[in-house]
Specification:
Heme c 1 binds at residues 71, 74-75. It holds the Pfam family Cytochrome_CBB3. It catalyses: a quinol + 2 Fe(III)-[cytochrome c](out) = a quinone + 2 Fe(II)-[cytochrome c](out) + 2 H(+)(out). It is a single chain. This protein is an all-alpha fold and 272 residues long. It has 2 domains: 27-142, Cytochrome Bc1 Complex, Chain D, domain 2 (Orthogonal Bundle); 143-232, Cytochrome c-like domain (Cytochrome Bc1 Complex, Chain D, domain 2, Orthogonal Bundle). Helix content is 60%, strand content 1%. Strands 1-2 form a two-stranded antiparallel ribbon. Strand 1 (176-177) and strand 2 (183-184) form a beta hairpin. The chain starts with a helix and ends with a helix. Mean pLDDT is 83; it is low at 6-12 and 43-55.
């Protein structure tokens, strides 16, 4: 009896020791789901990355061809620069899109600064060359559309523009003369994307306004202010070219006082 009881207890203990914990099945299911989901996510991201790389590489290859045919004479086949043109390493896609999109590049003739003119390349070709230059070294990127909608704070944009830009571009964005034959161009009719790109790349004598100087939202506010100026005429009537108070005051002194002197002489001659 004792032997049988011992065997029974052993069998019973063996069965208990061989049982799975109630949570073991749930744990196995969770592990399986996590493994499957992770593998699927990795596959999907890899496939997406391969697709994006293929599209980007196509643009880069096309941009390299366009660059070699149109820009390498001054900037070198590898864009490392020559005596005729600077290196483009690190200028980023934004600089290329600005310079080529505004027609400043390729240069028509050497001078103090590149002149704005009708662009020689389509938007697709410009983006391709920008992608190629951006692939050489990191640099400022073409801004996102959300910063270019001119739906920011125009009042804040006006204040930021007066503090950071008006000394060269005039408070109304009419432009102004600089030293050595250079000038700050008028900003009327300039596309918002080119205004933003100019701020982050600093073409010609313009300083660079990084995100540490002006946040993307503050740049968007400045664009909003410029669009407001363009869409709303001068409330005072004739703006006299928006030359500023000094030039406008000089205009009044010359023509206003000249007219008064002329009227005075005319009255005096009639009295005699």
């Amino acid at each position: 009896m004792r032997t049988l009881s011992s065997q029974a207890r052993g069998t019973s203990n063996g069965r208990k020791s061989g049982r799975r914990h109630p949570l073991a099945t749930v744990s196995l299911i969770l592990v399986g789901l996590l493994t499957t989901g992770g593998a699927y996510a990795m596959f999907s991201s890899t496939a997406s990355a391969e697709t994006n790389t293929a599209v980007t590489q196509t643009m880069v290859d096309e941009g390299q061809k366009l660059f070699a045919a149109n820009c390498a004479t001054c900037h070198g086949l590898s864009a490392a620069g020559t005596e005729a043109g600077p290196s483009l390493y690190g200028v980023g896609a934004a600089s290329v899109h600005f310079q080529v999109g505004t027609g400043r590049m390729p240069l028509a003739a050497s001078g103090p600064q590149g002149q704005k003119k009708p662009p020689q390349f389509t938007e697709e070709q410009t983006l391709a060359m920008a992608a190629y230059v951006a692939s050489l070294a990191p640099g400022p990127e073409i801004p996102e559309e959300r910063w270019l909608q001119a739906d920011g704070d125009a009042t804040l944009g006006a204040e930021l523009f007066r503090v950071n830009c008006a000394m060269c571009h005039n408070v109304a964005g009419a432009g102004g003369a600089l030293t050595e034959g250079k000038y700050a161009p008028a900003l009327g009719g300039v596309q918002p994307v080119h205004v933003y790109e100019a701020m982050v790349t600093g073409p010609q004598n313009m300083p660079v306004f990084s995100d540490l100087n002006l946040s993307p939202q503050e740049k968007a506010d400045i664009i909003t202010y410029l669009q407001y100026l363009e869409n709303n005429p001068s409330p005072g009537g004739a703006d006299l070219g928006s030359l500023g108070p000094v030039s406008e005051g000089l205009f009044i002194w010359i023509f206003g006082l000249g007219a008064l002197v002329g009227v005075t002489i005319w009255i005096a001659s009639k009295a005699n």
